[in-house]
Every structure is written in structure tokens, then in C-alpha cells.
From TrEMBL, chains A, B:
MF terms in GO: DNA-binding transcription factor activity; transcription cis-regulatory region binding
Pfam families in the record: LacI, Peripla_BP_3
Signal peptide (UniProt feature, chain positions): none
Protein name: Putative HTH-type transcriptional regulator GalS
Species: Streptomyces aurantiacus JA 4570
Annotated TM spans: none
Highest taxon listed in the record's lineage: Bacteria
Matches recorded under PANTHER family: LACI-RELATED TRANSCRIPTIONAL REPRESSOR, LACTOSE OPERON REPRESSOR
Alphabetized InterPro entries for the sequence: HTH_LacI, LacI/GalR-like_sensor, Lambda_DNA-bd_dom_sf, Peripla_BP_I
Length: 350, 350
């Protein structure tokens, strides 16, 4: 049976090197279509099954990268997971995914399982409410994983305490918020409502800081800032707009909206239309993330591109690059940039 | 160190049963918040790390479910993966994910790796070009996995040859296409253009069959059918509409469009607008999948809901339910239903 066939037999049968067979079997690109075909044929002819026991001893049982997100379907999480999976595959690793539903107890249980599965790295994705309990939890994960020869990677969330041996891969969230707010200010808008973010959540707060810093830089007094934090998610943006317009008797005191993410922005456009306000004719709208929806709706929504897939790839690349840091977090920040579409028009200042 | 602490110590410390500890650690719901807190506390106090070696011997090393999709970010694949992950977690399993990029050689290598990782089941998701090579490949996977005590689950793709020991979880794709086409016919449309599907792909072909069957049932001659298969994906729908309108000199010979999926439908609305045609005023549009975009665009797109998450859950439930079938596929079909939004108006027949 296949159990007795070795990778050398496959290489000999295919007339390629053992390295090529292993690259092909690992999906470890680049390999030519020709060698893939030869190896595939040889694997089939020999009904090759790598010897699980021998490979386990050789550490193949360890060849997984784990990624933990709040859910698997939000575009940001899905793209980070896709990046993790693609980079892991290039290194011959499979990817373990799990979703926490934002439940710390569930997160703890999953990190425990992933450690027991001997994942080479555990990647935690997404913003958090950063309190002592969180910092303490991350420190525990990092130390426990380091002790097991694995490592903790925090992706899109802040670095924990200075003595925590974690890898941190962030995107420049605040700079993106500053840039897109400046884009609105540059177009002549001054009263800009920031809506649809979760107060206390590190991702949302960084966007608020970028927004406020941009107002400062353009000499707009903080008294003109309009910040209505209700939570990420479509319905929150919808409610926020209705609240703001109801307070203002249907006539908005703002000429532009900075939505916490693109789905909020899409909902904002719908809500504004219900009050007879055109986008961008009456009110300009920008979002964040560059989710597919930003390109799918009319008008296309000007937004901030997050390098989600590249963050996932970077997390894996760094985790596999070397030994866990002796102490302290190792921080990497990827850039963001504006994607200009049709949802911004000139404001009263123009 | 933690290596010497057992799950019994944790249970004793937490004052709960070993089963409760294992359920909590496995994220195997339901568990009360109170017991989760107790167990979490005990795990922390004891710095508990389950003995990986002992657990591996006990089969914990096998506790993974593998899901293989073309990519991780398309809503359909992401929702199936989410369902797999949620159900797997409820059974104390972690989920392995990998994307094939539709490359058979890569699929083969990944199934091989997943078998070496001793996944309890390997779930392959999504439509295929069903040819002899495909049937032969699926038969090989199913037999190889069954021999390893694992099993093959085909999700959203047709059952292989009758002698292949695979589980098949499908959705009633053709019935959904029949229903949404009938919805258009019932609204008075007769010339309905079906666009944006990949000829030969089982998912697309089933939608064409449902469309044609609906035309037959409503007495619309096949000569009035308009089928323009170019491939799934937004740009294809866009091109298809431009082709059809260019041929017709800008004046469409159709009053409704059945788009192969919702992103195609969204692109169709944009393309029609560029020719000065209003949706649904001049042309009605329906899609398929009930992807988020269908609800996010204006007008909201009438579409067919696929139970993607439930398919993933069902795949895992069935795979863990019992021993691999002695021979032949075991087929389960989940229902689809129309989601009515604002993209359909009365046609000339009304």
C-alpha cells in the first residue's frame, strides 16, 4: 500500500527532484505546471501517501498556522485569513481558523486548543477593548505559546505590554482616518460627522484620533467636530444618521459624513436618501476598509484601503522567519491609502 | 510546569466536572458563563496545558475538520467555511482551511496534506467542470480518505459516481433558478436575459436548466430565451450587458436580466444605467446567492438565498455522525428560497 512508498519513489517515478515533489505536494509555489503534472501523475500511479508516523516525528504534525478572528465572513477578517492561508501554503503549512464571536472565554479555549494542536503561530485578528484584563490575557497567551515553541501574533490590534513576547502586525489606522478626513476638508467641508464606530474599541478610537488630528491641522475648532459613536455595523450607521437628522429637524448641520466602515457608509447613503438628501450632491460620504460594498454601491464610496491580505501574509512571514523574541513585542506597521470614488463633492468652503 | 497538570486537576480546582472542563476548553457549547469563568480561572491558576502527547494518543491530534474552497473571501465560500467552523467547534474540533485557486494539482496536494494531518473529514466546496478527470479524482480522494478513517464531503457540487463513498451536501440550485425566473415571468416579463455564469460549470448549468424549465412551464418558446454565458464575476456581467446592448443598438431586446450571481447583478445595474436605462423602471434585474451586496446596493436586488452556512454545518454534522458509507455517495439537498427586494417591476405582459 501507499504507506510503504516514499517521496523518493515519487521523485524517481516523476523524474524530478525530491525538493520539487515536496514543493508540489506542499503547494509551495513556484513550481512549473509541467513538474506539477509529472508529480501528480507519479503520486497517482504509486497511490502515494506520505508516511504519517515518520512525518509526525519529522515535525509535519506541527505544520499549521492558526488564525483567530471574531467571525470568518466579514471582508476584513476574511481577507486577513486569506493572506494567512496563502502565505502559510507557500511555506507548506495548512491553516487552522476559528472564530471567537468576541467571547474572551471562547478565545481562551481556542488558543488552548491551537496550542495543543501545536500550531507554529497563533494569529489574533481585529480591534479590541484594551483594558487590564485584555493586556493580562495577551501576556498569558504570548508566554504560554512561546513556552510551547509557538508564538502569538497580534494582527490589527495594538502591542501589549513591553515585556510580552508577541509579534504585532498593524495597519496605520489613524493615518488613514487623518488622510480621508483631510480629503473632505480639502474639498471644502468643515462640519464632518464621524459615525458608526464602537467607543472604546481600539480600531474605532484610532479613527476618531485621526479625524480630530485632521480637524486640528486644518484649523477647524474641536467645537465643530461631530462624533456619534454607536458601534460598527450597517444598522448602527443607519440609526446614527436618523438620530442626527431628527435632532436637526431633517436639515443636517453637517455637509459630510465619515462612516466608521464601508457598510456603515452604504447604509448612510440609504438613510440620507430617505430624508431626500443626495450623495454627494447634498452630503458627501466616506468610509473605511475598502470592502467590496464600497465599489458595488452607487455612488462608489471614497474610502481607505487596508492591506488586510498583506497583513495576513506578513504575520505568517514574520512568525516563520525566526525564533520567538527573547522579550517584548516586535511591531510592524503597514500603510493605508485613500481610494477615491464618487461619494465626495465640493463643500461650502469651495 | 503545566505539562504535569491534568484536566482532572482543573475540574477539581474549578469545582466542575471533567466533562464541563473539556466542553469549555473545546468551546463545545452550551456551557454556562459561570462554569466558563470558573474553568478559565482554574486554567489560569494552574497554568494548565493539556498533555499534548497523551491527547495525541487519545486521538486529539485527529480533532480537525478540513474545508477546501477556491478562495476564502467570496461570500458563498466564506459562509460555508463559517458554518463548518461553528459546527466543528461545537463538536470540539478545530477547522483547517485552504484555498485551491481552482487548480486541481493544488487541490490534490492539499487533500494529501489534510489526510496527513489526519483531518476527520475533508469538505470540498463549490461548483466544478464535471468531466472524467474530475470524477476520477473525486473517487480517488474518497477512497484514500475512507482508507485513512476520514471521509470526503462534497458541498455545493454534484455527487460523483455511484460507487464513490462520499457525502454530498447540495442546495437546490436549479429550483432556485426556476423560482426566480418564474418570479420574473409572473411579473409579466417574457424576454429575460440570463447572463454571467460559467458554461460547463455545474453551478452555472443548473441555473440555466432552472431558467429554461421555467420558460417551458410558462409557455415561453426556447427561441425567446437569451443566454449569454461568460463566467461568474462582476466584470463579466458588465461586459455581457454591453455586448447585448451593443448588438441591439442600445435598445435592449430583453425587459429583465437574470444575473448568475449578485455581484454580476450589481454590475448589471451599473452597466444599464450607463446606457440610460433605469432599474427596475426600464429593466428588472435578479441575482443569485443573497450575498451582502444584494442588500447594500440601490435598488436592493431580488435574489435567491443559498443556505451556505447551514450547508457547512450539515457537512460537519453528517461527517461526524457515523462511519463512512460502505459504498456509494450519500446525498443531502438543502432548500433555496427567493428574497424579494426592489429590483423587479411589472413587465410588458402586465
Amino acid at each position: 500500500m501507499g504507506e510503504r512508498i516514499t517521496i523518493r519513489d515519487v521523485a524517481a517515478r516523476a523524474g524530478v527532484s525530491v525538493a520539487t515533489v515536496s514543493r508540489v505536494l506542499a503547494g509551495n509555489y513556484p513550481t512549473s505546471a509541467a513538474s506539477r503534472a509529472k508529480v501528480q501523475r507519479a503520486v497517482k500511479d504509486l497511490d502515494y501517501v506520505a508516511n504519517a508516523h515518520a512525518r509526525a516525528l519529522a515535525g509535519a504534525g506541527r505544520k499549521t498556522i492558526a488564525v483567530l478572528t471574531y467571525d470568518v465572513v466579514s471582508p476584513f477578517f476574511a481577507h486577513v485569513a486569506q493572506g494567512v492561508e496563502m502565505e502559510a501554503a507557500q511555506h507548506g503549512r495548512l491553516t487552522l481558523v476559528a472564530s471567537t464571536g468576541s467571547d474572551p472565554a471562547r478565545e481562551l479555549a481556542l488558543v488552548q486548543m491551537m496550542r495543543e494542536q501545536a500550531a507554529e503561530a497563533v494569529v489574533l485578528v481585529g480591534g479590541v477593548i484594551e483594558d487590564d484584563e485584555y493586556r493580562e490575557r495577551m501576556a498569558r497567551y504570548a508566554q504560554a505559546l512561546a513556552a510551547a515553541g509557538s508564538r502569538l501574533v497580534l494582527c490589527g490590534r495594538p502591542a501589549p505590554a513591553p515585556d510580552v513576547p508577541a509579534l504585532v502586525v498593524e495597519y496605520d489606522n489613524e493615518a488613514g482616518a487623518h488622510a480621508v478626513t483631510s480629503h473632505l476638508l480639502g474639498a471644502g467641508h468643515r462640519r464632518i460627522a464621524l459615525i458608526g464606530y464602537q467607543p472604546g474599541n481600539t480600531t474605532g478610537e484610532a479613527r476618531v484620533h485621526g479625524y480630530l488630528r485632521a480637524l486640528d491641522d486644518h484649523g477647524v475648532p474641536r467645537s465643530d467636530a461631530i462624533v456619534h459613536g454607536v458601534g460598527f455595523g450597517q444598522h448602527h450607521g443607519y440609526e446614527a444618521i436618523r438620530d442626527l437628522l431628527r435632532e436637526a429637524g431633517g436639515k443636517p448641520e453637517f455637509t459630510a459624513v465619515f462612516a466608521g466602515d464601508d457598510r456603515v457608509a452604504a447604509a448612510t447613503v440609504v438613510a440620507l436618501r430617505e430624508y431626500g438628501l443626495d450623495v454627494p450632491g447634498d452630503v458627501s460620504v466616506v468610509g473605511y476598509n475598502d470592502d467590496p460594498v464600497a465599489a458595488d454601491v452607487t455612488p462608489g464610496i471614497t474610502t481607505v484601503r487596508i492591506p488586510a491580505e498583506e497583513m495576513g501574509r506578513t504575520a505568517v512571514r514574520l512568525a516563520l522567519a525566526g525564533a520567538p523574541p527573547r522579550s517584548g513585542p516586535e511591531r510592524h506597521v503597514l500603510g493605508t491609502h485613500i481610494v477615491v470614488r464618487e461619494s465626495v463633492a465640493a463643500g461650502p468652503g469651495r
